[in-house]
């Protein structure tokens, strides 16, 4: 039992409650709009603990919820055939970035996290949908994958520029949901390997991550229920505004 609860005994009841509440909220956001679990988790927990510690907590819930998202849709083989160059570079970029930068406990990591959150929020609020010509996928996909990987290694956030790139491919709603699950699964796996290489993902950290799976799934189910009863557009706008404020706070104050 000490193995499973040792992390939470070390951080105390107040911070443990914050962790649980964060994953309920992050799961709810993912349930409503299909993404946001690691972004919310990194943003909120990044204010209270080192980014590497926050990133380690999201490994299990992020992996399982993304695999769940990936499993349904029937487009997996076609997406793998189309996206493998980008996915390969996401994986490679994350490992290279982990060796070069890493999510250490320095103040710069929190500032970098804030910057990544702010950029993603501004994109979500103001960017108009773009359309990419198929001819550009051969070079732009790997480039976006590499940049996404390096940002993932430095901040634990793996949405920029992968999400805008995927949104520009003209995928159907079902394909897009599955493509996001695929991209996020690869990013989470590479991040886990990078954290393990920095001695930030041991048995205790994995046990702590396993224990927040239930709050994340509970939040996800609540979010899916809520999605049928609110405006998804309004919710997404509120999500990005909150994310922008969080990003500014971390960027300025670390």
UniProtKB/TrEMBL annotation:
Top-level taxon of origin: Bacteria
Keywords per UniProt: Cell membrane, Membrane, Transmembrane, Transmembrane helix, Transport
Entry's localization field: Cell membrane
GO CC field: plasma membrane
UniProt keyword annotation of Transport present: yes
Transmembrane regions listed in the UniProt entry: 12-33, 83-101, 108-127, 139-165, 203-222, 234-252
Membrane topology, record value: Multi-pass membrane protein
Entry-linked InterPro entries: TM_pro_TauE-like, TSUP
Family annotation (Pfam families): TauE (PF01925)
Annotated family: Belongs to the 4-toluene sulfonate uptake permease (TSUP) (TC 2.A.102) family.
Name this polypeptide is given: Probable membrane transporter protein
């Amino acid at each position: 039992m000490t193995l499973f609860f040792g992390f939470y005994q070390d951080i105390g009841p107040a911070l443990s409650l914050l962790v649980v509440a964060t994953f309920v909220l992050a799961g709810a956001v993912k349930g409503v709009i299909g993404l946001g679990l690691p972004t919310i988790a990194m943003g909120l927990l990044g204010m209270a603990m080192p980014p590497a510690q926050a990133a380690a907590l999201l490994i299990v819930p992020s992996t399982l919820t993304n695999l769940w998202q990936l499993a349904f849709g029937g487009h997996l083989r076609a997406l793998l055939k189309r996206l493998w160059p980008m996915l390969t570079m996401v994986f490679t970029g994350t490992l290279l970035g982990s060796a070069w930068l890493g999510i250490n406990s320095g103040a710069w990591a929190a500032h970098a996290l804030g910057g990544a959150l702010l950029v993603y929020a501004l994109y979500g609020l103001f960017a108009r949908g773009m359309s990419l010509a198929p001819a550009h996928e051969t070079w732009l996909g790997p480039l976006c994958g590499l940049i996404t990987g390096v940002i993932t290694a430095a901040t634990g956030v793996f949405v920029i520029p992968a999400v805008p790139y995927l949104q520009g491919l003209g995928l159907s709603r079902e394909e897009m949901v599955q493509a996001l699950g695929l991209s996020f699964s690869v990013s989470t796996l590479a991040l886990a390997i990078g954290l393990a290489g920095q001695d930030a993902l041991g048995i205790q950290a994995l046990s702590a991550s396993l224990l927040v799976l239930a709050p994340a799934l509970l939040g996800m189910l609540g979010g899916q229920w809520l999605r049928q009863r609110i405006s998804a557009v309004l919710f997404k706008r509120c999500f990005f505004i909150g994310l922008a404020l969080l990003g500014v706070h971390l960027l300025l104050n670390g």
